[in-house]
Design goal:
460 residues; alpha/beta; Rossmann fold; four-stranded parallel sheet; 19 helices; 41% helix; binds pyridoxal-5'-phosphate
Amino acid sequence: MSDQYKFLLTENDIPRDWYNINPDMPVNPAVTAWNAVLHPQTQEPVTPDFLAVLFPMRFIGEAVSLDRWIEIPEEVREIYKLWRPTPMIRARRLEKALDTPAHIYYKYEGVSPVGSHKPNTAVPQAFYAKQEGIAGFTTETGAGQWGSALSMAANFFGLECHVYMVKVSYHQKPYRRIIMENFGATVTASPSNKTHYGRSVLENNPDSPGSLGIAISEAVEAAVMSNGKYKYSLGSVLGPVLLHQTVIGLESLKQMEMAGEYPDVVIGCAGGGSNFAGFAFPFVHQNLTNGKNARIVAVEPTACPTLTKGKYTFDYGDTARMAPIVKMHTLGHDFVPAGIHAGGLRYHGMAPHVSALVDSGHIEAVALDQLDTFEGAMMFARAEGLFPAPESAHAVRQAINEALKAKEEGVKRVIAFNLSGHGFFDLTAYDEYNKGNLQRFEYPEAQIAESMAHLPQVTL
Ligand SMILES: *Cc1c(COP(=O)(O)O)cnc(C)c1O
């Protein structure tokens, strides 16, 4: 069919295994292996005991596994059927609007019940916790995308879910809080007086708007203090999270085959790196083992330019230095990015696997300003009818830039990007853009230099 738009799979095509990139990492395995995860106080490689306080055992097992394929439990696949497989769509109307010879495809993860890719990992994490007799999770959330995904998954398995939500978002973005509460979760504005760390932050600054790093610290503390009742759940960054997200890319490989094309460029937005890795790693696998050479591009905001301006070194995962130290691109654990609307891209660090592959040159990274990304999102929406989340808008804009470059060069190029979520709860951001209220954010050089001075002095 020459004029096909949607490439749809059946429930039978939902992958049976996740793709684990560990055995294929073309870098020193010590960098991403568990023995390069350091205890925040001793700075020695973490012990299984330390990790077992935080995470379900099966999750820890996935982090260290060197099996290329890890079976998706039947219980998880059953729940995936609620929204998977997700569609791959050729953006023909956008191609026309840009008058480009490029073919643009997007994988749309916004069809999940909570509107993003995040349930792909929330569901297996909740399943493991249930299997291991854990009462529930503590977690953090920025704008509420991760919190609503985990609340839904916890509700499916009859688990408790206690969410520390960055205070500024708690007050500005009530809709996702309501979704979490509808699923039976408790939602606490962070910094809160429920934890030692939250109280210490409030003592110093009663008006603290909070940050993702602070909320992670509160959630980790609450799990550690629960005597095993609760585990801590993270929605990005860690190896097993990237693993769970590979259903996106594995489906996409099949869908590109249905379309009779293979991407020259593969694009995703990167906050902690999970939707990017989930979409891109199966294509990286093809590059590494099957003679393909697609360009793989991670897109981040100029206001939080972790991959393009950060340092590839050891740093803490959270502000209070309670979470493990890992080797990653970082802007410093106490870096607090400007309040851009792509809240999900405001993390100071990056998934160690993504960082290592950028460092080794297997992945490219670019930073885009929020004004440019909203402009791209509007072009996309007016052509395709769909409003991307401000995070996803970074991938959209990069795809548009690649398509315009192809036009300039007069070449047909196949561009595939991941549209990680819809923007229906982010319409205020579009309103601000329309009213001309959005600012450009340049590289916050002095602020990054300041936080870089606080990196742990690791000798490895
Ligand atoms: C959370 C989120 C992101 C950023 O997180 P990653 O782990 O980098 O994927 C991107 N897009 C959407 C829609 C999100 O909800």
